[in-house]
Design brief:
The protein has helices spanning 2-22, 24-45, 60-90, 92-97, 103-126, 138-165, 169-185, 198-205, 208-220, 225-253. By secondary structure, it is an all-alpha fold.
């Protein structure tokens, strides 16, 4: 029974990975655009970056680094979950929905496929950290990688939920621009919560991605272990809830 459950999960996971790697424009777009944002915005702010609560000597390229990692995850989540709309249009998804496959297997396969791609590209970006003076040991890297994995699952699952209800790629992009980008902007990626307006700071405190980003910064900069654990925990819970929601939506479509 377990084999019957995990076989379709791995098949859908493999299909997502192979499809992504065959489309080089998606690879360049998901990784290249955030890197350009990081270099241009980080270099543009430069020495003007002086914020209370941020360790003395921290450059904006260093501060913006974890936010760029999250942007890479965000872009990859959008690009990978578009495949749900394409699969529906091509008839592949309808074939899966009438097959004797558990709804959780469908949701997990698609979400884990996109999350694996997001995680892999985030790890590639970590290689640029020494270029801006970010140096961390093995334990710090493993902590940041764990938070990255949790963020990859959570954001891909969120994209899955919206893509499942979308009927066109254009409509999906509109929803993503309205939901995912504000979610990223209000996570502390560009500016710390301490300097934001009071209403914005409140919204940021309700954003799960804020805690993940704080946790990643703490891990990479050798900060509080409690902050890193909190960030990972919040993202794991968010990812679990969104994955369960995606599976429930999938179950409602079976047999149609």
């Amino acid at each position: 029974m377990k084999q019957f459950f995990w076989a379709p999960v791995m098949t859908l996971w493999q299909r997502e990975v192979v499809r992504f790697l065959r489309q080089r424009s998606r690879v360049v777009g998901a990784l290249g655009t955030p890197v350009i944002f990081w270099l241009f915005i980080g270099s543009g702010v430069g020495e003007a970056f002086r914020v209370p609560g941020v360790p003395e000597g921290t450059t904006y390229l260093q501060f913006f680094f974890p936010g760029t990692v999250m942007m890479i995850v965000l872009f990859t989540a959008i690009f990978s979950t578009i495949s749900i709309i394409e699969d529906r249009r091509e008839g592949f998804l309808q074939g899966v929905l009438v097959a004797p496959v558990h709804p959780w297997a469908v949701a997990l396969g698609k979400i884990l496929g996109g999350a694996s791609l997001a995680f892999g590209q985030g790890l590639l970006f970590f290689a640029l950290a020494p270029l801006v003076g970010l140096r961390f040991g093995l334990l710090e890297f493993l902590a940041a990688a764990g938070i990255l994995a949790a963020a990859s699952v959570a954001l891909t699952a969120l994209g899955f939920v919206f893509a499942w209800k979308s009927t066109s790629v254009q409509g999906f992009h509109g929803i993503m621009n309205l939901v995912l980008f504000p979610l990223w902007l209000l996570s502390g990626a560009l500016f710390p919560r301490e300097t934001a307006a009071s209403w914005m700071a409140l919204v940021m405190s309700l954003n799960p991605l804020t805690y993940g980003l704080d946790g990643m910064r703490a891990a990479l900069a050798g900060g509080s272990a409690g902050t890193a654990w909190l960030g990972a925990g919040v993202l794991v819970v968010a990812g679990g809830v969104l994955t369960a929601l995606g599976a429930r939506m999938t179950a409602g479509s079976f047999g149609r």
